[in-house]
Amino acid sequence: MRAVIQRVKKSVVSSEKGILASGGPGLLILAGFEEADSAEDVEWLSNKLIRLRIFNDKNGVMNLSVGDTGGDITVVSQFTLHARTKKGNRPSYTRAAAPEKAIPLYEMFVSKLTELLGKPVGTGEFGAGMLVEIHNDGPVTIIIDTRDKE
Question: Is the entire prediction scored with pTM above 0.90?
Answer without folding.
Answer: yes
